[in-house]
Design brief:
Elements lengths: L8 H9 L5 H19 L2 E4 L1 H16 L10 E5 L26 H8 L3 E6 L38 H8 L5 E6 L5 H7 L2 E4 L19 E6 L2 H11 L17 H4 L8 E5 L9 H16 L3 E5 L7 H16 L18 H12 L2 H14 L4 H22 L5 E5 L15 H5 L6 H6 L3 E8 L5 E8 L4 H15 L17
Parallel strand pairs: 2-3, 2-4, 7-8, 7-9
Antiparallel strand pairs: 1-3, 4-6, 5-6, 5-10, 9-11, 10-11
Helix pairs in contact: 2-3, 10-12, 10-13
Length: 499
């Protein structure tokens, strides 16, 4: 039998139900892999072996009774933005280093209801602010992929880099992530796995540490499109505790993966031909379009004229909302509290100065500036108007097509330190993903090829609001045609974990 850590979620689900192995064996295989590889990759901030084994034992009892749920016995990682009852939840920040929530997030609550085994809390950029998983107070995450003939440490993408690296390195079968401007899709592309940002409101935000509330959305990572469909069905659904949660039924996303694309119209936005786009990204995009044509879809060009303004609008709206959300961290009610202060104002200042990292401080300052008197209309209000135009562009495009195909990221993963000193260059990593968050639409990244240096490159499929089924159908067809079977150098099955 191949390593248990090499299974997909669908294969593990079937194997558990057929009693070819137990949930405890599957969990122990992943915990062993984490013990071996996490000291290098730093994909997890907190590992919870005792809790995971207890959940696995409970899953085995449920399996023995023939009452398995959708995720019974499936070991997953949870991004450390999701509150875990009784378990430290840090959001990658020193200011929350000792925060232990008394409640469970809605998303992980649903996954636990369905029998998931949560192995631990995955690393991330501090408060999900970053595109490379370099801003975490608990150290950077290493991408398990390597360039040809080059041992440079590569970034896994961000902010959900720990979740993506854990899944790519076979330290979990799947993982939760959050996507505010591309933080699921971009790390999925960098790490050679699949990840979906659902429609805004499809998954509850209750119990997720807030970054930018009108943009944040939870979603899954997994190594296949089908596995993402299994996870999302468990994660999604209306939640009365979240006023933005959509009151819609959750479709059978796994069944949608079998639909195919025959008769669908797929749009290629001409504005996504970005300045300086590499030839290999352009070729990958053309190849993806050709694959969908061969599978029976019609591929046409469409226009999203306000795309060029998306990044500027995003980096006004997101910091503004972050400035407001992060005002609650004052050293009084919870979080880090400075021990060296003279009075209440000094306590606020020192606690926040000590607790927040440089990128978080930068975004708070930008957000506070654009919300200040005299600048609100000039920046924040104008950015919201641009956002409305971007959403209208997508609505107009979807009058003539069923889905859109674009690159996920403008490049493959880069090495730690290559662009970290240039914040604008770092922000440009999200140029293809940010417009979708501004419009609140679903989008998925799947691995579709390799760069000249042997690193994974992703393609992005964008759908209409609450039409994740079509996104899954197109993604599954593209996944089958691309036949991406490459794997990273650093992964658990090379250690024979659980074999």
């Amino acid at each position: 039998m191949s390593a248990l850590t090499d299974l997909t979620i669908a294969e593990a689900r079937d194997g558990l139900r057929a009693k070819r192995f137990s949930a405890r064996e599957l969990t122990d295989a992943h915990l062993g892999a984490i013990e071996a590889l996490n000291p290098r990759l730093n994909a997890y901030i907190t590992v919870t072996p005792d809790q995971a084994r207890a959940q696995a034992d409970a899953a085995d009892r449920v399996l023995a009774a023939g009452e398995a749920g959708a995720l019974t016995g499936i070991p997953v990682a949870s991004k450390d933005m999701f509150c875990s009852e009784g378990i430290r939840t840090t959001a990658g920040s020193r200011i929350l280093e000792n925060f232990v929530p008394p409640y469970e997030s809605a998303v992980t609550e649903r996954m636990l209801r369905d029998g998931a085994v949560i192995l631990g809390k995955a690393n991330l950029d501090e408060f999900a602010m970053g595109s490379a998983n370099l801003t975490s107070a608990y150290g950077p995450v290493e991408n398990p992929w390597k360039r040809h003939d080059d041992d440079a440490v590569l970034v896994p993408g961000g902010s959900s880099g720990g979740s993506a690296a854990a899944v790519a390195a076979h330290l979990a079968l799947g993982a939760t992530g959050t996507d505010t401007g591309g933080s699921i899709r971009q790390p999925a592309s960098y790490c050679g796995i699949a990840g979906i940002k659902p429609t805004y409101g499809r998954c509850s935000r209750w119990g997720i540490v807030a970054y930018a509330s009108s943009l944040d959305q939870a979603g899954p990572f997994a190594r296949t499109v089908r596995d993402n469909a299994i996870l999302l069905r468990s994660m999604a659904g209306h939640d009365p505790r979240d006023s933005t949660s959509a009151m819609r039924e959750v479709p059978d996303f796994e069944a949608a993966c079998q639909r195919g694309v025959k008769g669908l119209r797929i749009g290629l936005p001409r504005e996504y031909v970005a300045d300086g786009m590499s030839e290999e990204i352009r070729t990958l995009w053309q190849n993806g379009a050709a694959m969908l044509r061969a599978a029976g879809a019609e591929v046409v060009e469409v226009s999203l004229p306000h795309t060029k303004h998306a990044l500027a609008a995003y980096y006004i709206i997101a910091p503004a909302e972050a400035s407001s959300n992060l005002a609650r961290y004052d050293g009084v009610r919870f979080g880090h509290r400075s021990s060296d202060n003279r009075d209440l104002n000094d306590l606020y200042e020192r606690s926040r100065a000590e607790g927040f990292g440089a990128e978080v401080k930068r975004r708070i300052m930008v957000g506070t500036y654009v919300l200040s008197a005299g600048y609100y209309d000039a920046y924040y209000l104008k950015a919201q108007k641009v956002r409305a135009l971007i959403a209208r562009d997508f609505a107009e495009a979807f009058r003539s097509v069923d889905a859109l195909l674009t690159p996920t990221a403008p490049s493959a993963a880069f090495a730690q330190g290559e662009t970290i000193d240039d914040p604008v260059a770092m922000y440009l990593n999200d140029v293809f993903t940010v417009p979708i968050n501004l419009a609140g639409l679903p989008a998925m990244s799947i691995p579709a090829g390799l760069s000249a240096t042997g690193l994974p490159l992703g393609l992005q499929i964008i759908g209409r609001a609450f039409d994740e089924e079509t996104v899954f159908a197109v993604s599954a067809a593209l996944e089958q045609a691309a036949a991406f079977t490459h794997r990273p150098v650093l992964r658990a099955d090379t250690l024979n974990a659980g074999a």
